[in-house]
Amino acid sequence: MKRQAWARKGGYPVSAPRPALNLSAPAPTLRPLPPVAAAASAAPGWRKAPPITTWVPLGTDRVRSAREGDEPRTGDESVDHAHENAQITSNFLQRVLKRDSLDGAGGALDNYAHDESIPGNAYWDESGMHYSDGDAVTGMLSKGLDVAAHEMFHGVTSHSAGLNYVGQAGALNESISDVFGTAVEQWHADHKGFRTADGARRGNWQIGEAVMTPGTTGDAVRDMARPGSAYDNPDMGRDVQPGHMRDYLNLPDDVDYGGVHLNSGIPNRAAHEAAQLIGTEKVAKIWYDALTTKLGKDATFEEAAAATTSSARRLYGKGDVPHAVRTAWKAVGLLQNAGRSIPMTPPMTADQLAELMG
Ligand SMILES: [Zn+2]
């Protein structure tokens, strides 16, 4: 049922709604892609924060504004976390990536708190960022800065490369959101460490650790350093994200849109490996350049590997930085010599995946 609600709404959730393997779900309908925004951020004088509003439900299908712009805290935790995480992410966009809001044109940022349309999840769609207050497994979703930044970067992707939310392009869409989810969190936690390889080694590479099973420490929704090790609990089974192409899960499109929340572990680990060598800030700038100038909507992992290597060369010249990016992708089985690719696992059914997850 949850999956049906998700497919109908067309949102991009932080995790595959549970149960992840509802075969009665309709085929995914992809939203029409919005036009690529004009590069308004290049214009001088845009350094005004985009308008941020956090809304709460008011009866059925109606909302009221709970907090706007620089207004003080409301005391409603769900509202205040959503609002402030949007402010932090907007600041990151401006200061680190020189981008004005999600659309690159100063567009309004709307948060919807106490949104139980997908219980226990958060998602982004054209209307804005939506946060549930949690369920039996997750805590209040708006509490996670990485969750908020993840959702907001679905907006950036939608307004730039427009990666289709299915198969490898969909897993890249998910991975980009995780890369920037963790980048915003690392930047906010440690501005200096964000710039160095040392800082990246100390950095937090888990996604959603603040919201996953609040009573259990150490687990998360995903782990970019060690995909497949984020969680193991009776409600969700165990994390089966691959971290290498030889373990790519060859899933049909009606199972998590072809495993977008699963195969994202492969490009996630490549980003983590690169950051260990060059720091998270350079990874963020390189991945952003590839996302906004090189990747097409049907991009494959191999194309993302080539695009980020090329962006690294463009931004930092020939030498150590593009070499580090190349090394990172090779570590996950991409950019192999002479175009030799690692064979993928045979196609898998939803039942086989469910068995794997336990
Ligand atoms: Zn997502």
Protein model, in words:
By secondary structure, this protein is an alpha+beta fold. The protein folds into two domains: 50-143, Elastase, domain 1 (Roll), CATH 3.10.170.10; 162-358, Neutral Protease Domain 2 (Neutral Protease, domain 2). Helices cover 39% and strands 9% of the residues. The strands form three sheets. A six-stranded mixed β-sheet has the order 1-5-6-4-2-3, with helices on one face. The protein has a two-stranded antiparallel ribbon with strand order 7-8. A hairpin with a 2-residue loop joins β5 (122-125) and β6 (128-131). α7 packs across α8 (280-293), α7 packs antiparallel against α10 and α8 crosses α9. The longest helix is centred in the middle third of the chain and has 23 residues, at 167-189. Residues 1-9 and 19-44 have low confidence and may be disordered. It binds zinc ion. Residues 12-14, 150, 154, 174, 177 line the site of zinc ion.
- Structural class by helix and strand composition: alpha+beta
CATH homology superfamily name of the largest domain: Neutral Protease Domain 2
The number of distinct helices, counting runs of at least 4 residues, comes to 11
- Spell out which ligands are present: zinc ion
CATH topology heading of the largest domain: Neutral Protease, domain 2
Radius of gyration: 19 Å
The CATH C-level name of the largest domain is Mainly Alpha
CATH architectural arrangement of the largest domain:
Orthogonal Bundle
Quaternary class: single chain
How many independent structural domains? 2
